[in-house]
Design a protein that fits this description.
A seven-stranded parallel beta sheet has the order 3-2-1-4-5-7-12, with helices on both faces. A four-stranded mixed beta sheet has the order 6-15-10-13. Helices cover 42% and strands 19% of the residues. Helix 3 runs parallel beside helix 5, helix 7 packs parallel to helix 9 and helix 7 crosses helix 11. It is built from eleven helices and 15 strands. The chain has a domain of 213 residues: Rossmann fold. The chain is α/β, with parallel strands linked by helices. It is globular. The structure holds uridine-5'-diphosphate (UDP). The site of uridine-5'-diphosphate has 14 residues, from helix 7 and strand 9.
Length: 339
């Protein structure tokens, strides 16, 4: 199969490409505008491909999905069998300030990409969605049938894309999809070859790692008055390589001719902000400075996946369900990018 990975030079996309190289013989093309992805990541992935004995390596298109004519030409010549679509804007506060960026970059570009897939006989589409489509759910463990009611433009831009994809699939019998709703992804490649390199990071584990290595003076805990055992928010943190392997399982599932579907990807249990901070202090053996701050707007108290569906239907299982390991790999990568 020839697979086009949009956003393959970015954090999650690159871990998926790495696993595709290491465990399959598929031909891989990456399309990335390098707004948050990195050419050095593509170089590393090509090195991994060479180490595996691939002479061909990865085809890299340095292109933006908004350039419809250019993307169309890539589809004309590419003969893609599947598209894995990671390229997106993902910062919630930015989506509130600049919603049109999110609707253009996420919803409009995804719609165009789906249109090209149906026009050029791409069979399968795997879509990066988010637990943000659930908004502030009433039940602490959300299933795929929990009501979707996103509370910010980011979540809405992703939910709309899901709906476009579902409608397109209904109308095109030879086209199938899997939607993966990610919980809190963190950590980095166990061999420290790739990781998350994103300026102005806001995600908890990344921020804590940056505080350990001193690129931040301190970090803040946003709210300790939630209705949780220690008062801080609880999230379902999943190692990026477990999230990546869900994509490979999803591709196999579609190749088996199974029905289009949506899956939560998380471990099904969570940790509080204080537990994460404590774990980072333990694994780094550093007592970095942590300040208490008011609640951050739009944070639900608890967000944990019910992952029964992905475990039973995709036969996905976690390998790295260990908060200390997640923190260690995030920290190792942070030290690497700092140097
Ligand atoms: N958080 C925090 N300090 C930080 C970053 C995050 O206390 O510097 C909290 C945040 O309020 C939330 C949890 O950590 O309760 C996870 O936030 P993150 O931004 O990592 O992911 P989200 O769940 O918002 O997608």
């Amino acid at each position: 199969m020839h697979i086009l990975v949009t956003g393959g030079a970015g954090y999650i996309g690159s871990h998926v490409v790495k696993q595709l190289i290491e465990t399959t013989t598929h031909r891989i093309s990456i399309l990335d505008n390098l707004s948050t992805g990195h050419r050095s990541t593509v170089d590393t992935l090509n090195q991994i491909a060479r180490d595996k004995g691939s002479r061909k390596g990865i085809t890299f298109y340095h292109e933006d999905l908004k350039h419809f004519d250019t993307i169309k030409k890539i589809f004309e010549t590419g003969s893609f069998d599947a598209v894995m679509h990671f390229a997106a804007s993902i910062v919630v506060p930015e989506s509130v300030e600049n919603p049109l960026k999110y609707y253009m970059n996420n919803t409009v570009n995804t719609t165009h990409l789906i249109q090209l897939c149906t026009a050029y006989n791409v069979k399968h589409f795997i879509f990066s969605s988010t637990a943000a489509v659930y908004g502030e759910p009433n039940e602490p463990q959300v299933t795929e049938t929990t009501r979707t009611l996103p509370i910010n433009p980011y979540g809405r831009s992703k939910l709309m894309s899901e709906q476009v994809l579902q409608d397109a699939t209904q109308a095109h019998k030879d086209f199938s999809h899997v939607i993966l709703r990610y919980f809190n992804v963190a950590g980095a490649d166990i061999h420290n070859r790739i990781g998350q390199s994103f300026p102005n990071a806001t995600h908890l584990i990344k921020v804590a790692a940056q505080t350990v290595i001193g690129s931040r003076e301190n970090m803040m805990i946003f709210g300790d008055d939630y209705a949780t055992p220690d008062g801080t928010c609880i999230r379902d943190y999943i190692h990026v390589d477990d999230l990546a392997s869900a994509h490979l399982r999803a591709l196999e599932y579609l190749e088996e001719g199974r029905d289009s579907s949506v899956f939560n990807v998380g471990y099904g249990h969570g940790y509080s902000v204080k537990e994460v901070v404590l774990t980072m202090k333990e694994v780094s053996n550093t007592d970095f400075s942590v300040l208490m701050a008011p609640r951050r707007a739009g944070d639900p108290a608890v967000l944990i996946s019910n992952n029964s569906k992905i475990k039973s239907v995709l036969r996905w299982s976690a390998q790295y369900d260990d908060l200390a390991l997640i923190c260690q790999t995030a920290l190792a990568w942070e030290r690497t990018v700092q140097n």
